[in-house]
């Protein structure tokens, strides 16, 4: 005979409601209580009838994840972490990409009106929060990224200004003064590059270092080839003469490293390089890349928690949350102190 929720509750010494919250991943359950309930679930071999439960609740058990691009190592890793965390809630994740195209973002958001998914996590590059919430009227939405949510939806993000400030300050502390920034994106509205540029400039001004337009390079995309092109333009410009580079993604930084090696520059002796994202390739670059490391696991888990709270308690009266996850600077050889 299969076990029931009340059997689990009796064994764990908690209410049926608490067991239900643990099984569904909703509500606030103390970690010690959650572990006790999970032990009872495992001991009794309880297996929820997900199809029946979702049918009774008018849910599908599916959630959507929309990111700009899946071939980006950062978004690929984040998507994997979202899937991993969703499995703990017995959710299935449908993943799509938009390439930062406004029409693609609208189309995927409009799909929520047919309730194919119970909720959506999206990293919008083209649409602002007003348009995101307008198009996703029938399902909860959680925003990933830097666009201010303006009280319209839950958002989970990294403090890009503080992180870029720390990265630039680190380069200043190692004796660099001509620090270039690679990754400006004036053609996009997502705010990521703008915030990282603000943090970079803040650190320079605070240290009395040069804030020079010749050291700031825009890119079309955030990949190795774009970083390589920007690094080449810096080295070909006599007015730039950088002794360090802060790249707004690790992929940009890896492209910059490639060109530096091609031009015969020693890293870090002649040029220090710092990236952002802590992707695996950077750990095995030559030399290993210093980078800003966002807590990607917490980013995924907090986004899912926000979504779960909205799915299971849509009328809880809690205003939209603006969640900032931790980051740290992972210092490696590419930014060693200047001799």
Can you give a write-up of this model?
With 339 residues, the chain is of the alpha/beta class. It folds into 3 domains: 5-48, lambda repressor-like DNA-binding domains (434 Repressor (Amino-terminal Domain)), CATH 1.10.260; 55-158 and 295-325, Response regulator (Rossmann fold); 160-294 and 328-335, Rossmann fold (3-Layer(aba) Sandwich), CATH 3.40.50.2300. The chain has 13 helices and 12 strands. The protein has a 6-stranded parallel β-sheet with strand order 2-1-3-4-5-11, sandwiched between helices. Helix 9 links the parallel strand 6 (179-184) and strand 7 (216-218).
Observed structural traits:
339 residues; single chain; Rossmann fold; 434 Repressor (Amino-terminal Domain); 13 helices; 6-stranded mixed sheet; 6-stranded parallel sheet; alpha/beta
Brief sketch in words of this structure:
With 339 residues, the chain is an alpha/beta fold. The chain contains 13 helices and twelve strands. The strands form two sheets. The protein has a six-stranded parallel β-sheet, sandwiched between helices.
Helices and strands: which structural class?
alpha/beta
Q: Please bin the fraction of helical residues.
A: 40-55%
What is Rg? 23 Å
Side-by-side strand order of the widest sheet? 2-1-3-4-5-11
- CATH homologous superfamily classification of the largest domain: Response regulator
Quick one: how many beta strands? 12
Mean pLDDT: 89
Shape: elongated
- The CATH topology of the largest domain comes to Rossmann fold
- Largest beta-sheet details: 6 strands, parallel
Task: Classify the oligomer.
Answer: single chain
Distance between the termini: 73 Å
Strand content: 15-25%
CATH architecture field of the largest domain: 3-Layer(aba) Sandwich
The total count of helices amounts to 13
Unreliable residue runs: none
The secondary-structure element order is: HHHHEHEHEHEEHEHEHEHEHEHEE
């Amino acid at each position: 005979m299969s076990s029931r929720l009340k059997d689990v509750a009796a064994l764990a010494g908690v209410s049926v409601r608490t067991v239900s919250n643990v099984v569904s991943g909703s509500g606030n359950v103390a970690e010690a209580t959650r572990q006790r309930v999970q032990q009872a679930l495992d001991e009794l071999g309880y297996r929820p009838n997900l199809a029946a439960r979702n049918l009774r609740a008018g849910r599908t058990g599916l959630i959507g994840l929309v990111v700009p691009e899946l071939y980006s190592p950062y978004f690929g890793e984040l998507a994997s972490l979202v899937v991993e965390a969703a499995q703990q809630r017995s959710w299935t994740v449908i993943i799509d990409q938009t390439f930062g195209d406004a029409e693609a973002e609208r189309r995927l958001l409009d799909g929520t009106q047919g309730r194919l998914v119970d909720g959506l996590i999206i990293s919008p590059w083209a649409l602002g929060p007003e348009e995101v919430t307008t198009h996703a009227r029938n399902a909860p939405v959680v925003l990933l990224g830097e666009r201010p949510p303006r009280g319209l939806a839950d958002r989970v993000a990294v403090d890009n200004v503080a992180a870029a400030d720390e990265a630039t300050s680190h380069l200043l502390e190692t004796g660099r003064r001509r620090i270039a920034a690679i990754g400006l994106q004036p053609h996009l509205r997502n705010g990521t590059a703008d915030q990282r540029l603000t943090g970079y400039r803040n650190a320079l001004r605070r240290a009395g270092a040069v804030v020079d337009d010749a050291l700031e390079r825009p890119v079309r995309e955030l990949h190795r080839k774009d970083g390589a092109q920007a690094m080449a333009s810096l080295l070909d410009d006599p007015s730039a003469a950088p002794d360090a580079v802060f790249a707004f993604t690790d992929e940009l930084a890896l492209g910059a490293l490639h060109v530096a090696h091609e031009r015969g520059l020693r890293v870090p002796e002649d040029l220090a390089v710092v990236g952002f994202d802590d992707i695996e390739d950077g750990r095995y670059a030559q030399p290993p890349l210093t980078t800003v490391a966002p807590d990607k696991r917490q980013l995924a888990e907090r986004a899912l928690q926000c979504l779960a709270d909205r799915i299971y308690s849509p009328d809880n009266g809690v205003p939209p949350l603006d969640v900032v996850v931790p980051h740290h600077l992972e210092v490696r050889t590419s930014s060693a102190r200047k001799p």
